Amino acid sequence: MNKVSIQNSMLLGDGKVLLFRLKNNYGAYIEITNYGATLVSVVTPDYWGELQNRILGYKNLEAYFTDKYYIGTTVGRVANRVSNAEFTVDGKTYHLEKNDGKNSNHGGFSGLNKKVFNYEVLENKVIFSTVSQDGEGGYPGNLDIKVSYSFTDNNEVIIDYEVKSDKLTPVSLTNHTYFNLSGRQLNATNHFLKVFAEERLEFDENFIPTGNILPLNGLDGFDFRKFQQISNHMLLKNERNIKGFNTYFIAEEKSTSDLKHVAELKEKSSGVSLEVRTTMPGVQFYTGDYLGDDFLPFEGVCLEAQYFTDFVNRKNFIGSFIEKGEIWKEQIIYHFKNY
């Protein structure tokens, strides 16, 4: 039987921050905290059976309170960037917090990554919950938010999202884990990536979509339809603003309700691979160029399942505006395997 235990706890203001461990029947485990509904560690066996952590994380809970890089956190209300930090719906323009130049990113300064969530412990699952108040970050509506984590005997991290609002509002939550499958903190651009996509969004120098949807053509470094070493493709692409990648790939299957493969990552020295499946329509691939402080640039890579970047300002992009009383549900699965 899978087990949930509490590894650490401390007070933060009026809230209590805890570190939970979910352990499966084979000794592998994940650690999560209710601060930011954050994935702290994923400890799974390599090809030879040695248990090692496959993601980036801080050495103690306190470090998450000053985190600037969204290490393992739940991000939203709207993941990724909103151009000019505003959007208009039903004839009303909402002005968001500008935390990325003139744009808003990952919910602004009032993002979910800084919240102390309530928690409920079930037999093999932890459910985090919070309320994002009407006007928080500039967004309309009171949002009831649940983020649940479970961990299977097949080394699958299952993240379920459930959101309900009392006003029409956009929602696009995701998880911002940085993966390094080596377990030894090698440069993560040595990993090999495959995306289950035929198209990507074109971004400008500020990582805002131009509106163009481009095919993966094998000529510009963005084509990961077959496994490619990330570092090799970094040399092929022609972008002056970033050495690595910060790119949104559109899933081959356009349905937003069915679970689909969006990406697979593998690392040779450990023999560990990661499959990412989700109900959402695509994945943001980020190589951690701007990591700092406790981490090095390119030490981990993100595969953030989410809706199209800046969908709130582009009618032709796949997005999610939920009506009053409507329940928004999505899922992400990280499946760690040996190959």
Please tell me about this protein's structure:
The chain is mainly β and 339 residues long. It has one domain: Distorted Sandwich (Beta-galactosidase, Chain A, domain 5), CATH 2.70.98. Helix content is 1%, strand content 45%. The chain has one helix at 230-234, and strands at 3-12, 15-23, 29-33, 38-45, 51-53, 74-75, 81-82, 86-89, 92-95, 104-105, 118-121, 125-132, 143-151, 156-165, 169-170, 174-175, 178-179, 192-195, 197-203, 209-215, 228-229, 246-251, 260-267, 272-278, 282-286, 301-306, 321-322, 327-338. Strands 11-12-13-14-28-24-23-18-21 form a nine-stranded antiparallel β-sheet. A hairpin with a 2-residue loop joins β8 (86-89) and β9. The two termini are 26 Å apart.
Summarize the entry for a quick read.
The protein has one helix and 28 strands.
